[in-house]
Amino acid sequence: MAIDTSKNSYTIIFSVVMVVVVGTLLAGISSALSPNIKANKRIEKMQNIMFAMGVTDADDANAFAPANKAEDLYEKYVGAEQYIVKGAVATKTDAAFKIEVKKEQDKVKANSSYEQQLPLFIGKKDGQDFYIVPIRGNGLWGPVWAYMALDKNMVVQGAFFDHAGETPGLGANIKESFFRDDFAGEHVLDASGSFKGIAVKKGNLDPKNERKTDNAVDAMAGATITGDGISAMINKGLALYVPYFKTLKD
User: Fold this and answer.
1) Which of 6-20, 124-138, 164-178, 189-203 has the lowest mean pLDDT?
2) In 3-state terms, what secondary structure has residue 10?
3) Greater confidence, 205 or 223?
4) Looking at the DSSP assignment, which residues form a beta bridge with residue 156?
5) Which single residue of 11, 134, 204, 244 has CA 20 to 30 Å from 106?
6) Which long-range contacts (CB under 8 A, 24 or more apart) does 210-218 make?
């Protein structure tokens, strides 16, 4: 007997069957790819941390360390030097790598008495120690985040910035070298040793970024809100680490 495809019941049954079949297929694909996705995210995080401290592609300083070498390079430059910071105390633990800054921030929003766990990675390159901290904030269209490498005096040694959806050619330029390179050498503390942060500032009148103790870098043209978001992210995120860095003073 032929099926009457003109009936509404047929359309409904066909739609339900297709949803079930497609949903099952997608669930299976997602499950099969999950290990690879997790592995890729892990490699990307290693690349971000190393990029901030200057461990990049051997042929291009503006590119990540190769994915197929990332784990070996990470072991060489960072290894087990991974910590969770609470106040002035840093506890060495592999669990630091698994901490997601957004989830920690969400816990603070849900419970103001919650003490945020702060991941810290200490790398060593050419005899120099780099204290790399991940921070997260909001840009114009969505989240922005960064890995900032500091020395023990909270002077920036390098940085990596990224975003979810800032405007191409404007706010998205936070990923470009001409923006992030301005942060190298910038002081986070003022002359008295108090925390001041770094402002992405319009009218800074320092186009070559020669002043490293003014706690400011030049803003990007046409990206004021993104720049303000970067300033807030840096100032709020790095301030949490100040008690720990005070313990590093000679």
Assistant:
1) 6-20
2) helix
3) 223
4) 150
5) 244
6) 212/155, 212/185, 212/186, 212/187, 213/187, 215/186, 215/187, 215/188, 215/190, 217/182, 217/183, 217/186, 218/182
Q: Whole-angstrom Cα distance, residue 110 to residue 227?
A: 27
Q: What are the b/e assignments for 57-88, b being 16+ CB within 10 Å?
A: eeeeeeebbeeeebeebbeebbeebbbbbeee
Beta strand extents in 88-155 (DSSP E only): 89-92, 118-125, 128-138, 143-150
What distance in Å separates the CA atoms of residue 35 and residue 196, rounded to the nearest whole number?
42
Taking alpha carbons only, the member of 93, 143, 102, 144 closest to residue 120 is: 93
Return the pLDDT at 7. Answer: 62
Longest dimension (CA), the chain: 90
In the numeric block, which tokens belong to residue 94? 């592999």
Q: What pLDDT is recorded for position 2?
A: 55
Per-residue confidence (pLDDT) for residue 90, from 0 to 100: 96
Q: What's the rounded Cα separation, in Å, for the pair 175 and 160?
A: 7
Cα–Cα distance for residue pair 175/180, rounded to 1 Å = 7
Kindly state the percentage of the chain with pLDDT values over 70: 93
Instruction: Give the pLDDT confidence of 196-212 residue by residue, as tens digits.
Output: 999 998 877 777 778 89
Strands 60-64 and 89-92: unpaired
Residue with structure tokens 């970024």?
209
* Exposure class string for 109-143: b at 16+ Cβ within 10 A, else e: eeeeeeeebbbbbbbebeeebbbbbbbbbbbbbeb
